[in-house]
Amino acid sequence: MTNAWTDIKNTDLVVVMGGNAAEAHPCGFKWVTEAKAHRGAKLIVVDPRYTRTASVSDLYAPIRPGTDIAFLSGVINYCMANGKVQWEYLRNFTNASFIVKDGFAYQDGLFSGYNEEKRDYDRTSWDYVIGEDGFAVTDPSLQHPRCVWNLLKEHVSVYTPEMVERICGTPKEKFLKVAELISTCSAPGKVMTSMYALGWTQHSSGSQNIRAMAMLQLILGNIGMRGGGMNALRGHSNIQGLTDLGLMSHLLTGYLNMPTEKEPDFAKYMETRQFKPLRPGQTSYWQNYRKFMVSFQKAMWGDSATAENDWNYHYLPKLDVPSYDVLRMFELMYDGKVNGYICQGFNPLLAFPNRAKLTAALSKLKFLITMDPLETETARFWENHGEYNDVDTASIETEVIQLPTTCFAEEEGSLTNSGRWLQWHWAGGTPPGEAQHDTWIMAQIFLRMRELYRKEGGAFPDPLMNLSWDYADPNEPTAEELAREINGRALTDVMDPADPTKVLVPAGKQVLNFSQLKDDGSTMCGCWIYSGCFNEQGNNMARRDNHDPDETGAYLGWTFAWPVNRRTLYNRASADLSGKPWDPTRKIIEWNGEKWTGYDVPDISPTAKPEEVGPFIMNQEGVSRLFTRGMMRDGPFPAHMEPFEAPIPNVMNPKMVGNPVSRVFVTDAEEFGTSAEFPYVGTSYRLTEHFHYWTKHNRVNAALQPEFFVEISEELAKEKGIEKGGWVRVWSKRGSVKAKAVVTKRIRPLVCDGKTVHVVGIPLHWGFTGAAKKGFGPNSLTPFVGDANIETPESKAFLVNIEPSSGPEEASA
Amino acid sequence: MSNSPITAVSNPPVQPVSADLGPRDLKRRSATLDLPPPERQLTEVAKLIDVSKCIGCKACQSACVEWNDTDPGVGENVGVYENPGDLNPNMFTLMRFSEWVNPETDDLEWLIRKDGCMHCEDPGCLKACPSPGAIVQYSNGIVDFIHENCIGCGYCIKGCPFNIPRLSKADHTVYKCTLCSDRVAVGQGPACAKACPTQAIVFGSKEDMKAHAEERIEDLKSRGYENAGLYDPAGVGGTHVMYVLHHADKPHIYSDLPDRPEISPVVETWKGAVKYVGLAAMGIMAAGAALHGLIAKPSTVKREDEEHAEALVEEAPKNGEGV
């Protein structure tokens, strides 16, 4: 989230698209009801189904799964065509005026530089014209035909209301109502918020879905505003923490990147991470990258990381592929190239696509270790449960070791919520049975492996032998110790840059925040963006002061938000060029002639003059990007791409299947179905009654939603002879499930490009363990392909068939 | 107990509180002739359920099960979102979902209503109940079932205009929402209101809840719901559980919420001129073994039970004492 949950109460318009906040985030949704009740805010829902969120909306529009870019581009087109633009914001705070290289072009659904064989773009033409002074060339008048604004205008012009209806199936009148209401938020005194979740991410073009809305928000001037922003609703209480702490194969902590093979040494690695400003006088805060990186290396390897050995850069693995994401790992496993798999707090057998492939992959492992508080399907993948898990147990040789862990309520530590708040919590219970904290288990694995290396040696043991492990009890680091390490401290006296005779941070003391980090080895910091969470003032995550001066929703004394306790990112953009709030009733910060003051921690140097320094300090441009240069694999602008399995061809280019640069493994390419064989669009989702695959283990939740079902329209039910509450079989190219049928008016057939499209809704909470009735998950059906940029699986749009059936058979033995 | 509005969102008192809602606060007691007037008048309370803010998450159902420590059991999906399928002796409240196409706009509306006891000011269940003290009403308006006094006859089910009480096959007594009288007794709101994430369920003095409802109705009218209004039906003397409805002119579209609920004429006769005499007659019979079968067996009120009761009423002298 750019903003915070509590900030949503400040909005005038909530757009829930690519998510179902009332259903999947009911507690956070209270801020929407608050905005509606006390600000008169309106709520728009755009979704293939009339959801629980839709049930309290002011305006609902249906959409075909996987066509959000066309819809949003249509809204951008509407706003541009009707002058519904926050012009001053656009001119000064976006790259609308930047001139783009002549080679850049878009035609037939593809951008310049496409290589079909490599399924990749040569992105060199997707860039600005750079002047002789080394800065990007701009035309503040927005007249230049090659400026971003004019290229964008041309790019979205095809997305007329008629085209939106043709692609998305959204009736033109509904679309226009949505576009009109959204466009009112271009007024500086009107603000819209976007709340989205996996309804946008779980597509092969997921990142571009989000880009499209972010661009719309920039055109309307809603980023950095109170009540505005791009608000990703995270589906687990600490999934934000997972990405922040770099638990992805291509990331280190704080969005530092894992090196690649092309970066064999530190100098080479830093060469492409200079982040020189692209406009005069801009901050480009990533210029501090080296300080964060060196401090991270010092946190990892302490004294053994020195300037002479490039801070042990050679200890870091070097990626030979873009990422070892979950899809790739299971592909390798399926290929017999993985011996062991440690599955910590994760139930891939139900969470990842093409369950048949996952089962086959797990069956090829030598060993599988699961760490979980619950009996997961993954841990029991070898057990026969009749139709629910029809495996030949005797033929599976994988040794499975289940390590029971504690759950969140039995642990102390912090959880990072969607709004980037690191909230400390205390254990509310003692672990049952043999359960152990994850930290204890990880420590044991580490200590025992280190001991083995000490005794027996091995290839390149140095990273393991020299790993910092400075905890009072090496067997179990405490949450406090880890948090202090994440915050960072001075290793030797850190001197004040303004007065080199003055000690800023004495050796051994916690740094105040990342502004005190150094690239000379005098500081260490586990995760720079979290720095400040546990400094010499104490554990700031444990703060519980709920004062909120003037009720802005900032709550600066409540826990700690990264970065540096800032609640609204880009909040300098809430004020105009001279530093006055666009809307005085929505002031976050303002320029008082000398510095920035207000309700939140300014997202800019406190003394940076408003006319000189742009609000988007993390960007080399100092402004936000409507055109992302070569930073995304599938285009500098979002363009309509069909899902890999779509009921109609891409109207921009009928030959184009899916996202043209998404990674597709050879065996999976043969596993895509066609609309001739699988005429209906499947989509997966969560229900309020359950949390993922956890709460089916709880009798109360199981009572409230006991059994797997799918949802279909009355029209499709009639066509197929399916009765309400009757059994149906749903199948795709990859698998088959049986479910009860919920026949509903909440799903209506759509007409797309002249063809009637039926949607089959498939919720995801059932499996073969737990208290609820046994059932299936949509992942038995979903395709093994992910988003082109981040590999999030395409679980929200795929093709299925459906027929009435008998119920599933249990295991006989 | 404090007379200030109790809102379920406020945190409960930290200090130990002793229960302050008891027999001396009763203003009605089933089949009781000589109930002394309550010693004090408690502030009338109400739960307000704003249907327009409800997202149907069932947190209220979950909280109800947890607080009352019931186990509604893992049922099956019969093609709808209601689970369990109906109210039952272990499920005192239920989200009911209806898909209604507004004929004026042709837009679908998914109307979600939390069903449960309405805590009528004029409680049909209590009036129908032949067993002394099995159903009581406190001066704050809460209607509560006292299980040790319940004989399982099921008349309350017949007497309820909202079809709420459910007879347990396990212990042959009747169950329904207590408005968390045990929580209210220690200054807390009902569990459902505490759990409601959107504050669609709020709890406080009836006066405050009506004022709160007015604000909500104004907001709904500003959004084009011309007939938005408060459901506090006069036919049962008003209720201590009220709804804000977007379409208050047609309550029945909310999963058959009665448009004009009133106590059934049978019960009204029962209650009228002859009630206590009839009850006295029944009481005498209950004391003996004659009604043994009636107490032990019935899970519903059968036609013959009803006829039997009416016969008892008719047999009683029309000018009996205690009228």
From TrEMBL, chain A:
Its cofactor is [4Fe-4S] cluster. Residues 683-797 form the Molybdopterin dinucleotide-binding domain. One of its GO terms (biological process) is anaerobic respiration. GO terms for molecular function: 4 iron, 4 sulfur cluster binding; electron transfer activity; formate dehydrogenase (cytochrome-c-553) activity; formate dehydrogenase (NAD+) activity; molybdenum ion binding; molybdopterin cofactor binding. Residues 1-381 form the Molybdopterin oxidoreductase domain. It comes from the Bacteria. Keywords: 4Fe-4S, Iron, Iron-sulfur, Metal-binding, Oxidoreductase, Periplasm, Selenocysteine, Signal. This is Formate dehydrogenase (Quinone-dependent) catalytic subunit. InterPro entries: Asp_de-COase-like_dom_sf, Formate-DH-alph_fdnG, MoPterin_dinucl-bd_dom, Mopterin_OxRdtase. Belongs to the prokaryotic molybdopterin-containing oxidoreductase family. CDD domains: MopB_CT_Formate-Dh-Na-like. GO terms for cellular component: periplasmic space. It is found in: Periplasm.
Automatic annotation (TrEMBL), chain B:
Binds 4 [4Fe-4S] clusters per subunit. Keywords: 4Fe-4S, Cell membrane, Electron transport, Iron, Iron-sulfur, Membrane, Metal-binding, Repeat, Transmembrane, Transport. Residues 45-64, 108-140, 141-170 form the 4Fe-4S ferredoxin-type domain. This is Formate dehydrogenase (Quinone-dependent) iron-sulfur subunit. One of its GO terms (cellular component) is plasma membrane. The keyword tRNA-binding does not apply. Its cofactor is [4Fe-4S] cluster. It is found in: Cell membrane. Gene3D superfamilies: 3.30.70.20, Single helix bin (1.20.5.480). [4Fe-4S] cluster 4 binds at C129, C150, C153, C156. Residues 1-12 have a biased composition (Polar residues). SUPFAM superfamilies: 4Fe-4S ferredoxins. [4Fe-4S] cluster 3 binds at C117, C120, C125, C160. It holds the Pfam family Form-deh_trans. It comes from the Bacteria. [4Fe-4S] cluster 1 binds at C54, C57, C60, C196. GO terms for molecular function: 4 iron, 4 sulfur cluster binding; metal ion binding. Residues 1-23, 302-323 are annotated as: Disordered. GO terms for biological process: cellular respiration; formate oxidation. [4Fe-4S] cluster 2 binds at C64, C177, C180, C192. It comes from Consotaella salsifontis.
